[in-house]
From TrEMBL:
Domain CobW C-terminal: 231-316
Organism: Taylorella asinigenitalis (strain MCE3)
Similarity-based family: Belongs to the SIMIBI class G3E GTPase family. ZNG1 subfamily.
Name of the featured protein: Putative metal chaperone
GO terms for cellular component: cytoplasm
Domain CobW/HypB/UreG nucleotide-binding: residue ranges: 10-177
Keywords from the UniProt entry: Chaperone, Hydrolase, Nucleotide-binding
Length: 329
């Protein structure tokens, strides 16, 4: 039996390369979602997810966000997760929802996900792809296009683009980035983040362009990320910020091109409140002081997503460097 499109649950996909600002973009949307009728599926590469947004675990792998929206971590694949949350919704195990946002991993080629959502027999009768937005880092777009094969299919597959971190570049540079993106991804259109500050705009009918998602997607010519590694460095004791900063600075200067993403939370010596740290390649953003820790075991954790360098080498360098300096002092 064919299900009317109006009866299907609309799905909007948020894609973009590592560190582009997908989570920040989604957080802004959720903060303005007054009806709290959105389910967020996080398909994130690595061991640390949206911990800074999670406030209450509803059931296994399902969390209630600060906005009241429900977040679910994709553990197997998107299809299994969608069918599970639909069953959980019907059984009353999680809060009801009318819309779904899927955040892809920063290394994902969204072609396979779009094809699954659009053509899978079990999904297409229950869900409707409502659009895809690519969040593009204005400071790194051109270099990411040259270095990372995942960047281009993310831009091409999206029908809308959001330019993030515009405050870090000038107007001329922003224009160059926009022109560059348009030259390589001619199927998309720019939107300003302010337009999509809530889900009523995100899922508005005029924002949907379903015919685009019926185009064939080819992954031929794009490399896989089989040589990409993720790992977490754990510090059991508080971290000396000066010492840590020196080590990280040396590491990024030498291997910045290979370190795609850094993020985590540190307990610093002499400070009560922890800091949230994140960066992309050579660029490390100012630490953000947190009112509440992301986890409560008192340990510092730093996630690395790398290509071309062994995670174990990074862990060993941190241990050797920081221990040697401490012993000399």
């Amino acid at each position: 039996m064919h299900t009317n499109s109006s009866e299907r649950i609309p799905i909007h996909v948020i894609t973009g390369f590592l560190g582009s600002g997908k989570t920040t973009f989604i957080r802004k949307i959720l903060e303005h979602d007054k009806n709290s009728e959105t389910l967020v599926l996080v398909n994130e590469l690595g061991e640390i997810g949206l911990d800074n947004l999670l406030v209450e675990q509803v059931c296994d792998n399902t969390y209630l966000l600060a906005s009241g929206c429900v977040c679910c971590t994709v553990l197997t694949d998107v299809k299994d997760t969608l069918l599970k949350v639909l069953a959980d919704k019907k059984a009353g195990k999680i809060a009801p929802f009318k819309n779904i946002i899927i955040e892809t991993t920063g290394l994902a080629n969204p072609a396979s996900m779009l094809n699954t959502l659009s053509f899978d027999t079990h999904l297409k009768s229950r869900f409707a792809v409502h659009g895809m937005t690519c969040v593009i880092d204005s400071t790194l777009a051109m270099s990411q296009h040259s270095i990372h094969p995942e960047w281009l299919p993310q831009v091409i597959a999206s029908n809308k683009w959001v330019l993030s971190k515009r405050d870090l570049i000038g107007s001329e540079e922003e224009l160059n980035v926009r022109n560059f993106v348009e030259s390589v991804g001619s199927t998309g259109a720019w939107i300003e983040p302010e337009i999509l500050v809530d889900t009523s705009n995100l899922f508005a009918l005029e924002y949907m362009r379903t015919e685009f998602f019926n185009l064939p997607f080819s992954t031929e010519g794009f490399k896989t990320h089989k040589d990409t590694q993720t790992g977490v460095i754990v510090f059991n004791d508080s971290v000396d910020w000066t010492l840590f900063g020196l080590w990280l600075n040396i590491l990024l200067k030498q291997y910045g091109e290979s370190i795609l993403r850094i993020k985590g939370m540190l307990y610093l010596t002499g400070q009560e409140k922890p800091v949230f740290l994140h960066g992309v390649q050579h660029c490390l953003y100012p630490p953000e002081h947190l009112e509440h820790p992301l986890w409560d075991d008192g340990k510092s954790r730093l996630l690395f997503i790398c290509r071309g360098i062994e995670i174990e080498k990074i862990k060993k360098s941190a241990q050797i460097f920081m221990n040697l300096i401490k012993e000399k002092s």
